[in-house]
Amino acid sequence: MAYSFRICRILGIDVKVHVSLAVILVILIYVFYVNDPPFGFSDLKNPMRIIYSFVMAVSIFLAVLIHEVSHSFVAMRFGVVVREIDLFIFGGVAVIEKLPKEPKKEFAIAIAGPLASLALSTLMLIPYRLFTLFGYFNLVLAIFNLIPAFPMDGGRILRSVLSKYYGYVKATKISANVGKVLAIFMGIFGLFRNIWLALIALFIYMGAVEEEKAVTIEGLLAKYKIADVMTQNPIFVTPDTKVGDVIGLMLKHKHLGYPVVEDGKVIGIVTLKDVINAKEEDLVSNIMSRDIVVVTPDTEVFEALRLMTEKRIGRLPVVEGEKLVGIVSRSDITKLAEILDILQKG
Ligand SMILES: [Zn+2]
Q1: Domain spans of the chain?
Q2: How many angstroms does the Cα of residue 146 sit away from the middle of ligand 1?
Q3: What spacing in Å lies between the alpha carbon of 95 and ligand 1's midpoint?
Q4: One digit per residue, pLDDT tens: the chain, 346 residues?
Q5: What's the topology of domain 226-345?
Q6: What's the pTM value of the predicted model, to 2 decimals?
Q7: What is the CA(43)–ligand 1 centre distance, in A?
Q8: How far apart are alpha carbons 293 and 317 in whole angstroms?
């Protein structure tokens, strides 16, 4: 994420914070400073008043961090790669690559966070103000995350339970609908009572829509392999093709990227972005990207889409061995999904 920086590493995972957190931290310190007990320290004398306010504000982030680390810990036990943990305004996100679709694993990963928060909430029982408040906040964190709606943990827990009976795609749809209905009620209630609740409702509604969309596309594409959507015998260039000729190809065929082939092997890709700043007589070998991601005809279409999204690229050469056999673009895949969606509904 932009404007994020690393603060530490836990279990080999980078923990990053967004700069906006500094502002939130100051606001939290202020809130604890001016609030009356039990939610603030206005009754204390300085310097204890400011110290307690600061410690409490930091420990709120600590609670969120422990929650996310718990998700990550269970995910890693299942061999899932956790790339980083981001802490920002509303809490944290553990960036997990390819969440497992097995209900049992999804359930275990999703419930680990709320369980950790619930366990910490028992600190409420300690009759020492900092602990009581820390425990209380963990309880709120646990309950909030157990709301059965995406993107909250509760939404994933609900889906994993429903998956056993309805399958992954249908379970996602049902969970998303539960989340939407909940969000609408929360939103209406919030508009009259508490604007924060309305904002959270909006956040939940969008989460439900996003999750449903992603899973629907995945479901639609499930049966398709790259061989079904790729363009065969694609136009390619060689390392000694001139940039001017590449631009000519782009204007003629309206494709924005071409594989670079040498002795039958794909060695790079040249895209509109590469040619923009080059001179017409420059050679492709000087401007092409050599760091290429390729797929094979057997790669699942959804997997290719995931790769393109993750690496932010628009097209992938398709190879067999090292030989170029096709090319597939993001729009090839999204068009296929659109057509399948219409056919399914019609
Ligand atoms: Zn969580």
Answers
A1: 1-146, 150-222, 226-345
A2: 8
A3: 11
A4: 567 788 888 888 888 888 878 888 899 899 999 998 888 888 888 898 999 999 999 998 889 899 989 999 998 898 888 888 888 765 667 676 666 778 888 899 999 999 999 999 999 898 888 899 999 999 999 998 998 888 789 988 999 999 888 888 888 888 889 989 998 998 998 888 888 888 888 888 888 888 788 777 777 788 888 988 888 888 899 999 999 999 999 998 888 889 999 988 888 899 888 888 888 888 888 889 888 888 999 988 888 888 887 777 888 999 988 888 999 988 888 888 888 878 876 6
A5: CBS-domain (3.10.580)
A6: 0.70
A7: 34
A8: 8
C-alpha 231 – ligand 1 centre gap (Å): 42
Examine the residue annotation and report whether 338 is marked as an active-site residue of this protein.
no
Asked if 121 and 106 touch (Cβ cutoff 8 Å), the reply is no
Q: Which of 68, 106, 211, 212 is catalytic?
A: 68
CB proximity list for 22: less than 8 A, separation 6 or greater: none
Under 8 Å between Cβ of 318 and 326: yes
Inter-residue contact 204 to 179 (CB < 8 Å): yes
